[in-house]
Amino acid sequence: MLNTAPQAVAGVIANGDFADCSYSGWAKDTDGFGDVSVMDDFTIASGPDCAAQLLVDAGNTEAWFANTLFQNIALNSSEQYRLNVDLSVGSELSSADNGFIADYFVVAFGDGSGRYFGENGQPGNVFSADIDGNSRYSLDIMLDNTLSSFADLTLEFQLLIGFDEFGSDLAGSFLQVDNVSVTAISDDNVTVSAPSQALLLGLGLAGLALVNRQRSAGGRQ
Amino acid sequence: MKLNAFTIALLSAGLAVTAPVSAAWQSLSDGVDSTTSRATIDRVNRVYSAVVTLTNTSQDTIDGPFRILITNSSIEVNGADGYTGEGIPYVDVNAESLAGGERIAVSVSFNLERKRLSFTPVLQQDNPNIGVYAEAEGGGDATLNYLGMDLTIDTGAPGYVTTLMNATVPPEDDSRVAELLVNFNQAGTYALYARVRVGPGGFSDDSMYIPSALGNNNEWILVNGITGYAAPGEEGYEPDTVVDSGGEANLEAFMWVAITDGEYTVANNNTTEVFRYASREDGLDIDKFVFAPAELAYTVEQLEEGLPGQVVTPGETYTPSGPPLADGKSKFLGSVCCGAQRPNFEAYWNQVTAENAGKWGSVEAVRDQYNWTGLDEAYNLAKDNGFVYKHHVLVWGSQQPGWIDTLTPAEQLDEILEWYQAVNQRYPAIDFIEVVNEFDNAPPDGSNGRPDYVDGLRLYDPAVTAEVEGFFLARGDDAVTAAQKAEDYDWIVNAFQMARDIFPASTQLMFNEYSVINSDARTDKVIDLANLLQSKGLIDAIGFQGHAFSTGGPLETMVNNIDRMDSQTGLDIYLTELDIDGADELTQLLEYQRLFPAFWTHPAVEGITMWGYLPGHWREEQGAILAYETGVEKSALKWLKGYVRELAPQFNQPSLITVDETSAVGTQVADLVSYDYQGSPHDQSSAVQWSVLSGNDNGLFAVDAQSGKISVAAPLSPGLYDLYIQVVEGEYPSFTRQVQIVVPGDDLPPEVIEYDFTDGTQGWRGDYGTTATVGYDESIPAALLVPDWPSRNAQEYIEEISMTDLNGANLSYTVNVTQGQVDGGMTIQPYVQTGGPTYSRIYGAAIVPVAGENVITFAPEDNSAGDLAIIERLGLQLNGPLTEGTDDVVEMTYVRLEIPTSLPSAETVTYDFISDSEGMRGDYGTNASVIHRPAQEAVSLQPNDSSETHNYILGVPSRDYAGAAITYTLNVSSDLAASGLSVQGYVQTGAPNYARIYGSLEPLSAGSNLFTFYPQDDGSGNIENIERIALQVNGAFVADEDSEILIERIDADFP
Questions:
Q1: Which residues in chain B touch residue A125, judged by CB atoms under 8 angstroms apart?
Q2: What is the pLDDT of residues B805-864, one digit of tens each?
Q3: A129 falls within a domain
Q4: Measured between CA atoms, how close is A62 to chain B, in angstroms?
Q5: Residues contacting B636, CB < 8 A, separation 6+
Q6: Domain span at residue A150?
Q7: CATH of the domain at A141
Q8: Per-residue pLDDT tens for B175-189?
Q9: B914 and B937 in contact (C-beta within 8 Å)?
Q10: How far is B18 from chain A (nearest CA, A)?
């Protein structure tokens, strides 16, 4: 259920809508090595509205485990904030295909230590889901004030390769991130019935282009 | 956000419940929900990270510390906070507690591998209420540091340590010692539990040694007669049983045992301590030990599963105040000490005996190495407080040094002399020494596995043998008998001669024996030996033990044998090892009241030693303790205090109360009158408290707590009701009296005793001395009669009951029998049995059962010896041999004993001496007389000068006294009671022969005395023409108004 949209009074995310069709304001990481990828791990989805696009487990990617998009943010402890983001995901294979192993993504806050936290400031994450075919998510989540105490707070979007005991399915998955905002809200205008609410739209994304790749691991060592 | 809505392979939610038990960490399952997040990449540390979220779903706070075991992990944990003894990684949880509904989340890191991460988190609580587990062969929280060559490890399930060696003395080296290194997380005081299995040899397989303290010490404590509670899954297992120092032997079943002598202090947190233990008898399998916080109690399940114990509700505690009960009396009342029997000793007892510490095997287990620790404590306790010290024991056929058998007789004699001299040197002021213990039951003659050093003793003076033979020949024994007695007693004479030569003249010498006064034959032996020793001036006193297994029979037999020892030896007599059992407090109290006064007031008995009184008592299982660990006194001890101190109130009771069935609620049926300890009647202002201890479960009657008035409290139905009533003044209760109330009717219901086995075996057991055992199956429920057919063709199972007259009784057993047992030829035979020493049985017919349920009824008939009136056991016997079905058990589902209600006599003639003496007088031809005391509404008995007998008669109309019961109510001043007087009721015919029919000797106690005399036909017809009711006082006495015997009432009940 959508809540009545509160009035946004301040923004702490830079380039949350990727309006300039770049990663300006964002940081990228592949497998903990930083922004090292020279292939298609991080691209910009073009179209009427540009968006960040993370890709894993595809032939033209470098990540062995995960690609992470993140941005340092600072929250004022006297304010209450909410997170809004639009996410689109898709996978080359789906659960209807033999050998499918779902890749997955996570939205979380970081504290600079490497650990992830949820919107309540507790270890965990804000949102996570398997990627099984194409789906779209819009998150509208109230944030707990404890996050403001994190000195090195980051907002992170992590796309991970799913494995079984022998490895991955070598079929790519993408995560598009757009319209990211963390905004302080006026109490007078808040009519939120619950501390957090993830809105899962689950719309099919027919027509989204997915970079196909060779079903071979030969390109990786 | 709960993520367990998503089900992918990376998620692993839910707590495992089968994590290994180690130290105080307890796996939690109930009340805690767990979810696990999918793994993310910790890009800073390049590891996988997963979050385990724990939610306390209960309303109760769970105390930490906590940790999470990461079990079944597909990828190695990165940066674990530690690993269990089994190598399982864990991470600590930074929370001191988890409140009801509270949730905490913990991140766990794993190495980066391109494979699916899965694991099972197990939340554990570092619960200080969980014991520290030490597997006997190493394991749990212990590692095996050393295993003696005589010990072996069985690696089965469970693994255990056992031995094939038998040794009855403490270890002299480490050949049968095992040493464990035990990890303790927390400092504290720990009680010791063990999971052990006693072999088929029973008492030959049920002992071991534990250390007196942790560390490399060799001060061993003997743990013998091990009893406990069957472990889950074992035969005899009863759920939810708290493991205390009681329990049963549970042969061939692993059981949990509370070893009360084992209490250990750990000084620091996180330390490793040495724990040594040693074998003693083969056949004992030792699975594991548990060191548990001493202030907690544990059930068998809690110990078995590594669960926390529960705090024993502090409840009532009691600290007694002295002085000792017999302080200032002419005879002592003492106890064994010390160890578990040490607390509050000085408040109760004024004589000390060491229970085990004074036995040769305890002191000199290793030749020429003496352990005086326990003996020092007992001796010093006595000397520091001015108590009598009695040493137990110099020579015995049990608990002697193992090495003595390896010596020649000459060497033995040297060692015996050394032993005597060492005792004398260390303890120069011993008041009494039991020179020889159990000379007849357990001499050191090499029989039945006993040590053999009688020849060593004989060497002290070889001429003694001939002297002993001559002594008995001179007393009229034939040559064969005299020679046999010389062989039986010459070594004893030598043992006493040595004692007389070594110990000072102030030390009194005595011997000690059990099952004496209940056995005429053994009393004869005691008298023989005492007179022999006395002829040589070697003995000062006789000791008889008085354990409960020997005192269940008729009091008259026991008193008569004490009389015989007294009159035929003239020696002082000591009751050396008294204990009195009781399945419940009232049973023990009534038995104390039956026995103790007879012993205590006997003029020849100069002192009594209790064989313990606190938990840890060797007959604790049989209810023989007198106080609990909290110090709270059982009913018997409360009564004993008042009785011995002569401060107890008294009360008289009507011999029988008859109440009409139609009596309205509120109708008064009796007004009990009580007196203070000096005999002054209580009035309404007296601070007394009346109470009914038993017999009023249906609430038919009410006893006013202040006045003692008994009234009808509910609509009545015909029956005979036995109310056990006492009155308490201050801290002292009176004798508990059985007040009988009869509601006449045509069909009085019988007294019914049932065993339905809904809460265990209810006391049923395999007979003593057999390997038959009784298990339990809660699901039926039934007592399982487990046979051991290879051992014998008759399998006997018994239930011990208080001495009961079963004339007219009916007994029925409901048992389930297998087809195999039927085909195998088994028969079932009920019986009832008297107590010791004869243990006579009265059998029913042997029944051929059918497969399935059988109801076997039995109406026992007297054997003409009167045994049916003194039954102490119900029994069931399975008869073989069997050709098949030998492994089957018989399920006993129900036992019912019906005892007919026989109303007391239909007519009662009462002499109450309210207004005059009612014709009571001193017997003709004597100087005995009576004085009427109007104030006391009684007659005072005046002595027959200095005679030892004084007779008082009451002329009555000639009448047949067959079946009559005559109840005397006396009141005796304390000084006369203490002088050892006794009385006998009797009836007497008239002219010309004035024949008397006597009742039994009744000891007198201070205050109110009530006894009933049942005149028996002497075969001459005298009982049909009785013309006098009479009383005889035995013993010289002087009477005045402050010191007298009063007859307050005589009731003659006629059928």
A1: 1, 37, 40, 51
A2: 899 999 999 999 999 999 999 999 999 998 877 788 999 999 999 999 999 999 999 888
A3: yes
A4: 14
A5: B580, B582, B585, B588, B589, B591, B592, B626
A6: 8-202
A7: 2.60.120.260
A8: 999 999 998 888 888
A9: yes
A10: 25
